[in-house]
From TrEMBL:
It holds the Pfam family Lectin_C. Keywords: Disulfide bond. Residues 13-131, 126-239 form the C-type lectin domain. This is C-type lectin domain-containing protein. It comes from the Eukaryota. Coiled coil: none annotated. Gene3D superfamilies: Mannose-Binding Protein A, subunit A.
Amino acid sequence: LKNHLMVCQLYQYHYVNEEKTWKEAQQYCSQKHTDLATVTNMKDMKRLISVSLGDIKEAWIGLYDQTNAQRSWHWSLPGVEFNERETKWAKDEPNNKGAGGQKCGITWKESDLFSKWGDLSCNEKHNFLCYSGETTNWTEAQSYCRQKHTDLISGLKQLQDGEVNKGLNLATANSRYIFTGLFSDTWMWSDGNSSSFRHWNLKFNNQKINSGQCAMTVFDDGGRWKNENCDERKPFLCYDGKFYINLN
């Protein structure tokens, strides 16, 4: 058997017990390490939580909101890239209607042959595609799927799966619209990483819960994130991005 060379990136997280604004923390991390903490999946999230020393309540991470940027669509499942050329939006969708906007993706059965996509408010309650036996809002659905399965259904390939179509037929008996892992936001990582991974507090629902444009992780809330005013002074988490080689 031939050996296979695999190059992976491992994030090494460092908690800094100094209170700084988000911008000051980002400058410190870029000088002393690589950048403020970037989180790309639940494994990263668990390792980030492990740096908590018990008395740590919250800390800045590298996610911030581009307030005037155009929203971009992402899939909830890390590693699944959104491709605008491979979409099934219904006519005039997505339209982001309403005062609070429509920032979470849905699908519905238009015929026995195909389904269509649209956008709705993340606060509405609908069935969802990893489990069709109850209704909930999008953020709670994402949390359930990550705990019980892997994630909300993400990507055109998964949505075209035969088993998914069976689930869609069952779900539409109770609810016309079904939440998928598609969502839009204007948040990005300070190091330029394109990761779509989000771990918001369940109250966030992809809407702003206050005026804050910078994200922090809250350790006594299972590491979940909340947005905060960037000028607040908080401790923070840096990371070193190290590459290692695995020869199989």
